[in-house]
Structure formats: structure tokens, C-alpha cells
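Support case: user asked for a sample of complex input and structure output to validate their parser. Sending the pair below.
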Amino acid sequence: MVQEMSVLASAVDFLIPAGGSAKAMMAAVLLGAGCGLLGCFVVLRRVALMGDAVSHAVLPGVVAGLIYSSERSPGVIFVFAATAGLLGAGLVRLMMMSTRLKSDAALGIVLATFFAFGIMWQSRNQQDTVGVMNFLFGNVGSIDASDLRMMLMTTLVLVVTMFFLRRPLLVMSFDEGFSRGLGYPVKLLNGVFYFLLTFSVVVALQAVGVVLVSAMLITPAAAAYLLTDRFDRMLLLSVLFGVLSGLAGGVVSAEVNGLPTGPVIALSATALFAGVYLVAPRHGVLSKAWRTFRRRMRVRRENTLKAIYQIHEGEGFVHEEVSVLMLARKRGQTEDAVRRDCKALLSRGFIDMAEDGVSLHLSRLGWKRAMEIVRNHRLWELYLTNEADYAEDHVHEDAEKIEHILEPGTVRQLEQHLDFPELDPHGKPIPQPRHLVAQPLLTR
Amino acid sequence: MNMIEYITLPWEVLGIGALWLILMAFFVALPCSQMGSFLILRRMALTGDAISHSVFPGVVIAFYITGDLASPWLIVGAGLAGLASTVFIELIHKWTRVKQDAATGISFTALFALGVLLMELLLGKNVDLDLECVLHGRLGLLLEDDRVALFGQMVPAPVLVMAGVALVTMVLLFFFYRVMMLSSFDADLAASYGYRPAVIHYGMMFVVSFIVVAAFQAVGAILVIALLILPGAAAYLCSYRLKVMLLIAALHSLLSAVGGLYLHVWFNSNMAASVVVSGGVLFVLAWLLGPVDGVLWKWLKEDVTTPEESSD
């Protein structure tokens, strides 16, 4: 190994470490970075399973490479494998263009048929193709200096191409027609994309195997996609996740004897994704559930406020207080449930409870919010009947939802548009929260 | 060797064994072809892919507990693992903005990786359930299996098991044909008739998992995808009618079984892969010559009638 290192002089070879485990680690990191980078486009373009199809389709190429290259040169294997992969990707597109079959069927057909052809060929030449299992299931330990050189160079090509083409490729991922309109050479770019995809698949193959290449392409990029809405950040995060899973796989399988590296890398990526899936700030499941819960609670509080207002209104605003019992009847709920709602309102300063807990009255803040909600509701009903030609008895349901989300600016627009109305379509007055001070009853 | 000798070669080499191989391949391919046709219609071909990879950890765990490769618990374990992957797919793409294709990829690679890892951890390397078998299947080893006497013939036991699986699938298909057809073409209409979409979805996924694991030992995890997709896809290019499509798919699986045997004997290659390759050749034929979508007919028609439409 030392001799070999002294012979190799180029810049690329200088980077290649001598130790076996260091090589494995470097391979894992390289593939994490390369796949993470490309995976972003794969996920955004919704061709996630294209990687799966290509990785299976390269098998006949790998077999051909093993058979026809007597010294098993990684360059030759790479060329054969990439050719088979590109042929597969091309066939998928051709099949989708010329038949009614959808992408899923086309991908599945190419994947399985190419793979079967590879297995069939390999089974005829078993003595020439001993190393084929390394490609199928991945074996980081089998990667030697010349493989690593190949990986380094392809990753370099990948990174450089991605750096220069990321804008046009990004636009194309979202809207192919638009990018054609911008004058991008769409066909050429598509070709480049599938070329790079095949490249990185073949690179990753030897480390993680046919099936788990897909994990490296999809999982880190999907995790990054849940964390950010900006593409450059997504690229960085995805590469970071890829490298992290590569490192984790390398470390764990070096520490624990006999653990295969590929699955550990894939499961590390999955664990990262699972974490992000749960706790991502905007797109995570937990934060989404929390937001939904908070919104539901707010709507509930506001409906209770509205009910209190309506009770007052029904009595002609003569009483200052509302009993819990009346509120429960109005809301159609049990007293206990209403008491819980009142507690929430009390803690936010919307109402004051009497000491016996039987009655309550709205605070100034409570009056203001209650009037806003009722105003929103009635304004919207008026808008729907006057401007959108809704029947009077069809507007309530819609207003019931929108009253909680109308913003002050929109309310002002509505008022102007409707020429500052005083009555809703059912003849009830539209309250004016800004006149709160002027009404003697409410000044307390 | 002349033509006739090529044709009679398998029968001379294998004797009655050739029949068992064809029957076995057919009994594996037939249920796959029928369920696969529905997967094609529902645009869920790659869910078959996902399931076939995902059953792996279920098989490993069931094998670890029972210690018996022929135990029916293996099928239960595999079915559950297959269902788990479809549940994960739904969880990811229903609740986040990750799309279905990426969700599929995440789920099945994770379960497959888990399977490989568990196999190394729980089983070690000296067991029957080796990686070669996962990939290649052991269809070629059929003739070395235990035999069971039936109608005066010594039939290899796996042939009978697979025949049972095929029979169960066909019976299920017979009873649920209407529901499956309806929900595949118009899920809303099916729902309005009171067929619960979730029940149909997961029911079908369980049947697919069941078939996949039954076929798993014979043809391996990856080639089973081919048996699921190829017949349905080829038949889809040949007909607009579902019943005809199912028939053609069944015919496709029979022909690929026969063709696979010949390739296997002629080239001395892996039997399972040969079946798939011959199925692939049949698909290409359907692609070129299929009555509905045949590329050749389209070219001919285009040349004669609509030269101006050739731009797209």
C-alpha cells in the first residue's frame, strides 16, 4: 500500500487514504454527498423511483463489465454500467411516450426486466462474476484505491456540473414548459440530468448496493425538503444529511463487528428523516398537529364569546351578566364543558367570573373581540348576499368559518365596499367595536 | 442441432421435471399476473415493488421465531411487513408535502435495510435464508425438493403449495372481481355503493403481500416485481376490456413459464430470471404489435393518414 501511494502522484490520488477503514469511511461520505445533491432534484421532479429503476437496470452492465474486463478495471465496469443505466432510463421515457402505460408501470418493467437479464447472464458466467454480490448488496470493505479514485472523480464532476446547472435544472424540476419558454435546451438538460443520475447511482452501487441506492437518493433529500422552502438550503441540508448517514454507517459498522455498512447507512438516513418528519418546524407532523390544535381551541373560545354577545343582544343589552347555565343552553353543551371554556377565556382576560361561579360578564377586551367576531360574521353574510348573489339562508355556514380568520385590512375593505352597512341580511345590527367607548353600558 | 432438437431438448434433459418446472413457474406467475393487472390499473405498480422489498424483515423475524422456513407464520410476518410499508407510505405522503413516489422509496428501502440488518444480527450467515436465495429464487432447485405422491406421480411439494396459492387467489378474484374492478376505475363510485376504499386498498395490499411472499422463495424478491407488472402491462397494451386483459395476463404468465424453461435449458441460466426475461420479450412484442397500443400500427397509420401530426 505504501509503495502504491508513492507511485501515485496526481492530485486525486493524494486525497485517497491508506487504511482500509479510512477508505470505507471516505467512500460512504462521498456517496452521501453526491446522492444528497442529486436527490434534491429527484425528489422535486417526482421521479424518486427513477433512481430505483436505474440502479436495477445497471446490473447487466455490471455483469458485462465483470466478464469483459479481465483485470476488473472500475473504469470499464463504470462505462458498461452507465450505458445500461442510460439505456434503461431512455426506455422508460420511450415507453411512457408511446403507450398508455404510466410512469410507475414503465419504471417497474424496465427495472425488473433489465435486472432479470443481468441475473440470467450472471448465472451463466459465475466464475467471472464473483464480485457481483458486492454490487448487489454493497460492500464498502471491497472498495479499493482504484474504486475510490473513480468515486472521487465522478463526485467531483457531479458537484461541478450541479454548481453550474442548478438554476436551469431547478426551473425544469418545477415547470418544464416554462423553462422551454426561457430558452433552456430542455432535452439536453434532461439528458444531462439522467446522465448524472446514472453516474451517481453507479458510484453508490458498490457501497450500498442496488436497493439502498434509492435510500441515499431519496431519504436525505426528502428530509431536507421538510426543513426548508429555499432550494440552496435544501441542497446543503441534503448533502449534510447524506454525509451524516454515510459517517454513521461507516462508524457503526466499524465498531460493531459484522454489521453490513449499506443497511446501516440507509437506516441512519431513515432515522434522520423520521426525526425531521416529527419535529420539523413548519412541515413536521407534530408542529402541524400543534397548530391545528391551537386553531381549534381559538375557534372554540371565540364561539363562546360570540354566544355571550348573542345572549346580551337577545336581552336588548339590559343585563350586565350572563349565567353559565344560559351559556350552556345557548352553546348546546354541558355546564362542565362551558365552565372549561370560561376558564380559558378568564385566563386570557376576556371575561370576569362572579365569585359564586354561576355568572360571568365580558371584560372590555372580551366585548371588543366578541363584537369583532359578530361583525365579521354579519359583514360576510351581507357581502355574500349582496355581492355574490347567495340566498339569505345559505350564507350562515360560510360566515361561521370565515369570521375567525378575517383580518382587519380585509374587514375595512369589506366595510368600504358595502358602504359601511348597519344591518346584516337578517336585519340584525352589525356591531362596531370602534364605538365601544361611546356606548355607556359597555364603558365599565 | 436442428430446430426440432432445440424444441425437444428440455424434455430430453429433464423429462417429467420440465413439466414440474413449467407448472411451478406458471403457478407463481398466475396469481401475480392477476393482482398485478389491478395494480397497473390503479397506477400502483411500484407499490408492488415496495411490498416485494418490504416483506423481507417480516420473513426474517418470523423465521427467527419459528426456525422453520416452511412455516405459515412466514407468510403472516411477510404480509404484516408488506402492510406496514403501505401504512408508512400513507403516513408520509398524507401528512407531509413529500409526494407518493418519494414516500414509497423511503418506506421500502428502510424496511429492506432493516431486513438485511436483522438477518445479519439474528440469523448469522449459516442459514438457508441467504442473500442468493433472496435475489435469484430457488426455482432451479425445485427438482431436488421433497416429492409428494399425487395421481401416481411424484409431484414436488412446492408445486402443490403454489398451486394452492394460485387457487386461493383465483377464488378471491372470482368473489371480489366486481368490487376490485369498480374501485380500480372509479373509486368514488365504489365508495358511493358502500365499498370502503380503505378496506379495499389494504385488503388488496394484503393479498399482494401474501402472493409476493409465496413467490418470494421461488423467484426472489426483485424478480417477483416483474411477474407482478409485466403480464398486466403487456395485457393492458392489448385490450380495453378488463376481463380480456386478465385473460391475456394469464396467458402471458403461461407463455413466459414455457419460454423461461427453454431459455433456462438452452443457455443453462437461472430459471427464475429466464422466466422474467421471456416475459420481457413477450412484453416487447405486445408493445410493438399489441392491438391497442402497438407502436408498429401507430407508425403505419401515421404514415398513411396523418403526416401533419408527426410533430408530437
